[in-house]
Write a structure and sequence with these properties.
With about 110 residues, the protein is of the alpha+beta class. About 30% of the residues lie in helices and about 35% in strands. Strands 2-3-1-4 form a 4-stranded antiparallel β-sheet. The radius of gyration is 15 Å and the shape is elongated. The mean pLDDT is about 95.
Length: about 110
């Protein structure tokens, strides 16, 4: 019998710069929509926008959260994000250590 999917999700979004990533990440953690937001500056993105091929340097934000927070996190991300169409991709977590999951769930709960 397969083990159940851990109650953890990784949300990917890219932002214009490290400052925006820090602002978004801090807000999402403060509001308990994310347990952790990891900023990876210097990501180079190539994409099609309004019929043109674009290239830009962005900061990738890896947001660790639970499935119950996804809808509110997406709504808040759209409110705070500077992009007209922000990336919001959710990855399931196949496995995770129990101590990390315990910490994550505690971080997402209201005190």
């Amino acid at each position: 019998m397969p083990s159940p999917t851990p109650p953890a999700r990784i949300v990917l979004t890219t932002v214009a710069n490290p400052e925006e990533a820090a602002r978004l990440g801090r807000a999402l953690v403060e509001e308990r929509l994310a347990a952790c937001a990891t900023m990876i500056p210097g990501a180079q993105s190539i994409y099609r926008w309004q019929g043109e091929i674009e290239s830009s340097t962005e900061t990738l934000l890896l947001i660790k959260t639970g499935p119950e927070q996804l809808a509110a996190l997406e709504a808040r991300l759209h409110e705070l994000h500077s992009y007209e169409v922000p990336e919001f991709l959710v990855l399931d977590v196949d496995a995770a250590s129990q101590p990390y999951l315990d910490w994550m769930q505690a971080s997402l709960r209201l005190p």
